[in-house]
User: What shape does this take?
Amino acid sequence: MAKSTTRFFCTDCGHEELRWLGQCPGCQAWNTFTEMKVAPAAGASKGARGFSAGDRRQAGFGGASRGHGASAGAAPRPVPLSQIASAATNRIPVEPAEVARVLGGGLVEGSVVLLGGEPGVGKSTLLTGLGLWWVRQGLRVIYVAGEESPSQIRMRAERLGFKPDREDGFLILPEVHLETILAALGEEMGPANAPLPPTIIIADSIQTLHSDVVDAYPGSPTQIRYCGGVLADFARRTGWPVFLVGHVTKTGDLAGPKLLEHMVDTVLYFEGSGGGSIRMVRAVKNRFGTTGELAVMEMRGDGLAPVDQAGLMFLSGRRGIEPGAAVCAVKNGSRTFLVEVQALVSPTRYGTPQRVVQGIDSKRVALLAAILEKRAGLDLAGCDIFVKVAGGGRVDDPGADLAVVAALASSLRERPVPEGTLVLGEVGLTGEVRGVSELEARLREAAGHGFTRAVLAAVAGRKPRGVKGIELATVTSVEEAVALVLEPGPSARRSKEATP
Ligand code: TYD
Ligand code: MG
Assistant: This one.
């Protein structure tokens, strides 16, 4: 085998360079380069990628040779698009339906799914639960256990209701050496042309795997990238879907999972919410579905269960009574959630004013505070500002802007937003309020939970179409919105409207 060479990798984004650099050209981080030994590329293509019984179930790839390594003689020819079968979206059903929706309606054969999340959030629990359901449907699951012993996995499975006599298709492979894993998977394929039960591979976790081809320690960017690439290749050649579990640290995106995002088909992030038992699975990339979908589940003693009334999770119990709270309806993929934005504004006693934000982009909140200050004349510059989303949710929808504005103004003025009022709209730099997408779905969700009034943008100077049970109050600027939301009460407003 040829001599290994030295390369430098950014530990944040995995960017590769031939020499050490102070600042990463990929992600602009400082002092993140580490030196690693890597094997020459030729060794890589001949080594682990030549797993034994591969290439059996070509799913729409035309069966052409991969054209590297030994088959250099027969160079591949480009194939007309019209001759390529579009068979890649054969979906394996998934239960619970929450997770199926995030995957785009099911698990696509031959696809690679990366499941990222903090240690302990429940990644192994989720995948064991999915696996047990699949084996009950007659499928086979191979769980590559790099982190836990087989008996620990058995204990977890028992908590999830495992029946030893009926669920024989759940296979454990306690191994971290990539070449051995591939050999074992090749064995599981049996002799050529024998009928194969559809098999799902779960690699828990990608950080524990290592290959001989790469001269680096397990969990290093090179190992993660190489092992992930080989398993992705395996999935595409065999049609067997592969799940890669990747740990993400509390500080954000660890090198590992980020490195894999471009080579997998689907990236799911598994998050807890506010330290409680609620868990959310979010699709941040999906070649076979929409992103932005959110599955909401609860971690119970016997595994993950769907949450009743998930649309209400981000509301606090006391709606519209306390100053500093405003409710909006946000879209997460095809789902609508009612979200309560809470703000606490108080004069700064000493030092520079504080800005603490949880669950919303803090720059967005700073921008909205500046707009309120400039366009609605609210004096926020000398105040500490704290903003969060109730229930530990996270909001990226610009339609929540007006709720942030309303919550800030409500706290500063010590006036509550009236009960049953929904505040919806995007806010522009000039203080204008804009409409939101899929308004009807949002209003319907709110009406279903007893909301009776919505403050929102006028569309082209007119009232948008409403929903039964919700009175619409339109505004064009943040100034109007603040006045309308915080005015003493509906009775006062009605009397004002009555007088011409
Ligand atoms: P785990 O799936 O091991 O997390 P990860 O693989 O992401 O590191 O789950 C860890 C936590 O979940 C652990 O603290 C125990 C808890 N748990 C339950 O509450 N109920 C259950 O049924 C199971 C299996 C785990
Ligand atoms: Mg685990």
Observations:
- Residues 123-124, 147, 204 surround magnesium ion (ligand 2) (CB under 6 Å).
- The CA atoms of residues 329 and 338 lie 4 Å apart.
- The chain has two domains: 63-68+90-306, 313-498.
- Residues 41-71, 489-500 have pLDDT under 50 and may be disordered.
